[in-house]
Amino acid sequence: MPQTPxxxxxxxxxxxxxxxxxxxxLANLRSHLSQYAITxxxxxxxxxxxxxxxxxxxxxLSDWSLPQLLPLVRRIRATPTDLLHIQHAAGSYRFERSVxxxxxxxxxxxxxxxxxxxxxxxxxxxxxxxxxxxxxLEGLKEWGxxxxxxxxxxxxxxxxxxxxxxxxxNITRIMAERxxxxxxxxxxxxxxxxxxxxxxxQATARQELRQHCHWSADTQVITFFGxxxxxxxxxxxxxxxxxxxxxxxxxxxxxxxxxxxxxxRGKEAENYWxxxxxxxxxxxxxxxxxxxxxxxxxxxxxxLSGSDIGVLPFNPxxxxxxxxxxxxLAHRLPTIATHTEESDxxxxxxxxxxxxxxxxSEALADAIHHLLEHPEEGDRLATNGYNFAQSFTWESIARxxxxxxxxxxx
Length: 410
Known about the structure:
This protein has 410 residues and is α/β, with parallel strands linked by helices. Helices cover 42% and strands 16% of the residues. It has 16 helices and 13 strands. Strand 11 (309-312), helix 12 and strand 12 form a beta-alpha-beta unit.
């Protein structure tokens, strides 16, 4: 543990852990950094700061449009700190690119503190405005990137940072290939489960879950955990579950998570929730399906411990960027998950999941049926998944962040 306290100022597009996975990640990170005497302040939008009602979460700008960067620069310069740490994922900034200029503006203003950037995603979001010929734009991107002045995707965000943290090896590889010898210090620090496992006897957890949902003690619970969103494959799961009920009348479906997120808000969130409820009703699954909405982390952990099978049918495929996946594995839950060529191969190599193709209700039904019919296979899968998940802990994440901070502040 360090003898001298360290203060970090985090910049993030939004800070609503109940609506955003990156914000939830940051909340966990801040909590675990405290064991290294690292305190922190959040600078984010006024709306997020108002909703959080936390003195360490401060509003610095109204939105992420370009004119708002100057007030943010002034606020950062006026905030006493040892280093600045930017958390970036496109959705948390409402897909605004202005933050890509932030390191450049800070340096031009005379800011001398170290800057760290965590890229939660990368490799898919090139800037392609219609008013500039594509060939000219490509030439400009490559010209500056080859000199280490900017990055073709994230502007000055990477090249203007003293250290860059990524959450998986694929992102690190793409960055290193693009920036070559000009890349800043790159460190891969995988995420961890977005839930802490609450100690509870499995029999107790099973009883509590079934009583809460008004299900009999002998029901077999198939659980989805995470924000309910159109890209999460919820509709194919519901259709696949309908097929399961014909062979397994005691099967039940638990959809655990809220709908309101940064990418699905207000009326859109309400409409999607109603769409799911209508589908459940039309398939006559009302007495076999329970939707929790957003629930506290402790309750979610107890429900996972009381479930029989976990299912994550994400349309893009599941990867190690999914805190929901790691949470299921950490709870010793045999987990069925969609897999594509772009998904993490290590999940298959370690036999940590039962893979299925995305958008395929028949494949989901077959996989669920197989695990219900062969509980010994579920036990093996649960053990493999649990052992695999032990490599991804918040204690390890905090220690690796501390090491990065030490390297750039000494």
